[in-house]
Specification:
The protein is α+β, with helices and mostly antiparallel strands. It has 11 helices and 19 strands. The longest helix is centred in the last third of the chain and has 25 residues, at 267-291. It binds adenosine-5'-triphosphate. Keywords: ATP-binding, Cell shape, Cytoplasm, Nucleotide-binding.
Amino acid sequence: MFFKKESEKKENKEKVTRKKVSNVKSLGIDLGTLNTVVAVPAGDKFEIYEIPSVVAVKKEDPSHVLAVGEEAKLMLGRTPEDIIAVRPLRRGVIESISQAKALLIHAVKKGSKNDVSSVERIVVGVPGDVSEVERKAVEEISKEIGIKNVITISEALAAAIGEGLPIADASGTMIIDLGAGSSDVAVISLGGITDIETFRYGGDNIDENLVRLVKEKYDVEIGLHEAEKCKIKVGMVKCNKELENKKIKIIGKCSKTNKPKEITVDSKMVAEAAEPLMKKLINALSDILERLSPELISGVYKRSVVVGGVSQIRGLKERIYEEVGIPVKISNDPLKVVAKGAAIVAAEPRALEPEIRLKAMK
Ligand SMILES: Nc1ncnc2c1ncn2[C@@H]1O[C@H](COP(=O)(O)OP(=O)(O)OP(=O)(O)O)[C@@H](O)[C@H]1O
């Protein structure tokens, strides 16, 4: 067997609607570096399942998957020597087909309440610069588990649909998606992406940079989990607006003594760690704006939305406005909007067809 049965209680399941969904036919999936989100259309709402993108595998044979999702996450750092917990995706790209397959099976099982044969169509969000090989890999995996109708959609387009932006409009909108391992800036008009910049850099890199900065400043080693906690609790990015410099105490390992040592991380340190991501984002935005046709500038000015987990960091909206003059909105639902958009397309794939888009313009 590929994986063990997981406890229903452990997985973070959000019930957006009370309506019971039976005979599920279509699912939207955001196969993420850190989190995989499954959205199931239920009337005009969704049932949402969030699964950590982690699998536990045998060290000797990493294609041998022992546990998936929350169960595998609990094993991180606590596994016996012959078992390791790994992420099937790195920087938004599938690293191991067998591990990604186990994760996708798990996601489809969750979304269909263990009735995989009832699923007729899945739509999977992929990063904007995904290669044909990677796209095919997702399709092949889906077909292997018995789902014939698989559509891959750019995460940015799915996010725009999930946000309810008027994608068919000719005047343009913009999505900025800041994920764990990859980020996109995309301009959308007439139902399709007219320009996109993708960079394989995201929230994970802030964590890595913070680990390095803490080591340099205190000679103390902290884990990536601790770094992520600091980013989420006290994080901010540099901007002209005066933001509170919050502080958090964490325990690390002193490099000299090997003893535990308590240190303080503040918002300014996180801002320093986030600066390379900010530079990449501002470069991407500047390049997009340089190429943007004047017909689309007013739509982009009025309707630019930031999605993805990192969108929640303080000061982001202010910094983007200072640098490129676009007053962005931060999504109210940044972690689930790609899966929701994918689910909308899964329920009505014709929404992406050109003639429907043209009709929507009339
Ligand atoms: N409040 C917060 N402030 C800053 N960063 C956050 C916050 N909450 C979550 N994050 C970060 O957002 C990232 C996860 O975002 P998301 O779930 O959109 O990524 P993903 O879909 O797994 O990755 P990718 O799209 O790159 O494959 C992580 O780096 C996480 O630490």
